[in-house]
Amino acid sequence: MKILLTRSAEQNQQLCAVIGAAISSTVGSTSSSTFSPTAAEIISLPLLHTEALVPTEATKQCVLGLDKFDDIIFISRNAVRFSLDVLERYWPQWPIGLRWLAVGSGTAEALARADVNAIYPPKASSEGLLAMSELSDITGRKCLIMRGEGGRETLKEGLEARGAVVQYLETYRRVPIPFAQKDLPDDEQVIALLYSGEAITHLVHDGGAQVLNYYLIVPSARLQGMANALGFAKVEVANSQEDHAMLQVLQQMQRQMP
């Protein structure tokens, strides 16, 4: 069995360590709830490159008005990475009363490394954020969503439906990284972890028909439907994009494979 990791090299390295620890912890164990001690080959193939967007005058004006917002929401670790640099250019001290939210624990940890305390939902997703009690009564509150170029509208629409005034600040974009079909694993049993529609589309575009035989793990039913529509027949959904959630499904899938 081969496991294909498709995020950035740094993120793949972190997840590789998590998977390796899970495999190592089963040595000498008879439990069927974790990996067998048979080592799987882990392959890192980043599919998307993330790069900063050039700040515009609109970006500057939005940042200068940060104290006019009630809530600031970061939808990914990349949002933290690229947005804090922009915000700190104009705000050496954060506005008093601004409430910080993160899509999940990983994003909250990235903010914590910058000495920012953020609240986050148990399930890392837009739906998880919308289920938080802190966002249930937000009529009239001004919310700023920090994100990359494009993306889902679920969170914005959900907040606006509750009476909030919502604005985006996009500070980065995802660019496909070209690869050759020879870079892909050719094993009959390949499990690929995919996190976005752009990554799934790019895998099919450059990988060709052979990738449609892969087993996929994705963090949402929306991505599962997209993968199925593109021709993938074996797609499992994790509860969130966090490493522990993706690993849990990977463990289950590994046990089910012949």
Q: What can you tell me about this protein's structure?
A:
This protein is α/β, with parallel strands linked by helices. It has two domains: 126 residues, Rossmann fold, CATH 3.40.50.10090; 125 residues, Rossmann fold, CATH 3.40.50.10090. It is built from nine helices and ten strands. The chain has a five-stranded parallel β-sheet with strand order 2-1-8-9-10, sandwiched between helices. It has a five-stranded mixed β-sheet with strand order 3-7-6-4-5. Strand 6, helix 6 and strand 7 form a beta-alpha-beta unit. Helix 7 runs parallel beside helix 8. The termini are close together.
In short:
The protein is of the alpha/beta class and 258 residues long. It is built from 9 helices and 10 strands.
- Assembly state (oligomeric): single chain
Q: What CATH architecture of the largest domain would you give?
A: 3-Layer(aba) Sandwich
Radius of gyration from the alpha-carbon trace, in angstroms: 20 Å
Order of helices and strands: EHEEHEHEHHEHEEHEHEH
Helix content: 25-40%
Low-confidence stretches: 26-37
Structural class by sheet pairing and helices: alpha/beta
| CATH class value of the largest domain | Alpha Beta
Strands, total number? 10
Q: Mean pLDDT score, rounded?
A: 89
The largest sheet is: 5 strands, parallel
Question: Beta fraction of the residues?
Answer: 15-25%
State the end-to-end CA separation. Answer: 10 Å
- Count of distinct structural domains: 2
Shape: elongated
